Amino acid sequence: MIPSAMTRKRHIWQAVSTALHNGYIPAYFTTFLYQGALKGGCTPGLNCYACPSAFLSCPIGSLQNFAVRRQFPYLLVGFFGVVGMAAGRMSCGWLCPFGFLQDGMKKLSRRVLRLPGWAGYFKYASLAVLAIALPLWLGEMWFSKLCPQGAVEGAIPWAAAGLAGTDALQGMDIGVMMGRMFWTKMAILAVVLVAMVFIKRPFCRTACPMGAILSLFNRISFVRLRVDERACVDCNFCQDVCPVDLKANRQVDSPECIKCLECTRCPRGAIKTTLGFGPARRPAPGPQSD
Predict the structure, then answer these.
(1) CA distance 153 to 56
(2) Per-residue confidence (pLDDT) for residue 4, from 0 to 100
(3) 3-class SS of residue 80
(4) Are 287 and 248 in contact, with CB atoms under 8 Å apart?
(5) CA-to-CA distance for 123 and 204, rounded, in angstroms?
(6) Which residues contact residue 38 at a Cβ distance below 8 angstroms, ignoring those fewer than 6 apart?
(7) How many separate domains does the chain show?
(8) Is 194 helix (H, G, I), strand (E, B) or coil?
(9) Phi-psi category of 202—alpha, beta or left, where left has phi over 0 and alpha has psi -120 to 50?
(10) Which residue has the higher pLDDT, 272 or 31?
(11) Domain coverage including residue 189
């Protein structure tokens, strides 16, 4: 299938965002994390802090860090609020590097396995338990320990550098670096990668704490979708093109929606983007009186 102009535009945004998130090229020669001024800020997507080339901090990693230190993250909460109120989960659809990977992996198969509706609640459990409760209780960043995005951008590059005997890692025990937790993380990554081929964005929909936070703003954000029920013929076009398998005409501004705007390609113009805080539906006309 030839991608539409909207899809090409979105993929360009995703590719550029991924490159900018991880553009500290010297890291691949020195194996030292970037520690400049930008690292004090967070990305609006999921991008591993421990990736040698990452310019920004991961918001979920920052959240866990505050939980471990038992401090309230005032600025971080404000960051979530600003991003969420502006566009809900739109950064998931246009900017997140791991979302980009999931979209790319799904192109390997046209088969789509449907997830039950209740599967979306697991991401809230991931946020509450792995990103907040366990770090607060045990003093360890448990989501980061298991995060498949961290495996791709952090664990694998560091392990490769260790196996290559990189000078910057001299004196480090590669056996310790690639211990049980490393292989647990690799197993999780393998499962998630396979799921990406057959399920549309499985990680975003079932496990991402960032998605869980931003989903709370989807129905009240400034960027929203509007369904014109007078034009909609319930043809399922919106679900076919949706990267998270939503039937957008019935689930407009759902917490699962990543506001990728693919559904606005509707051939009948039944779904459009709207700015502001108006109603999400334009009702079908009622019976006419004589």
Answers:
(1) 13
(2) 85
(3) helix
(4) no
(5) 8
(6) 55, 56
(7) 1
(8) helix
(9) alpha
(10) 272
(11) 5-161+172-215
Tens-digit pLDDT profile for residues 199-228: 999 999 999 999 999 999 999 999 999 999
pLDDT given for residue 278 in this prediction: 58
Query: What pLDDT is attached to residue 116?
Result: 93
Asked if residue 91 is part of any domain, the answer here is yes
Averaged over 272-282, what is the pLDDT?
72
The alpha carbons of the chain give a radius of gyration, in whole angstroms, of 21
- Asked if residues 163 and 65 have their Cβ atoms less than 8 Å apart, the reply is no
**Segment 126-130 mean pLDDT:** 98
Amino acid at 38: L
| Position with higher pLDDT, 98 vs 289 | 98
Residue 234 resides in a domain:
no
Q: Are 149 and 102 in contact (CB under 8 A)?
A: no
Grouping H, G, I as helix, E, B as strand and the rest as coil, residue 55 is coil
Alpha-carbon dihedral sign for residues 164, 168, 173, 179: negative
Distance, in Å, from the CA atom of 124 to the CA atom of 208, rounded to the nearest integer, reads 8
267 is a domain residue: no
Question: How many Å from the N-terminal Cα to the C-terminal Cα in the chain?
Answer: 48
Instruction: Report yes or no: 44 and 83 within 8 Å, Cβ to Cβ.
Output: yes
Q: Over 80: is that where the pLDDT of 32 sits?
A: no
- Report the DSSP beta bridge partners of residue 42: 57
Alpha carbon distance 90, 87 (integer Å): 5
Q: Where are the alpha helices (DSSP H) in 164-255?
A: 174-177, 180-198, 202-206, 209-215, 237-241
Instruction: Give the residue from 148, 145, 262, 265 showing the smallest Cα distance to 196.
Output: 148
pLDDT digit string (tens) for 99-112?
A: 999 999 999 999 99
Residue 286 forms part of a structural domain = no
What local confidence, expressed as pLDDT, does residue 236 receive? 92
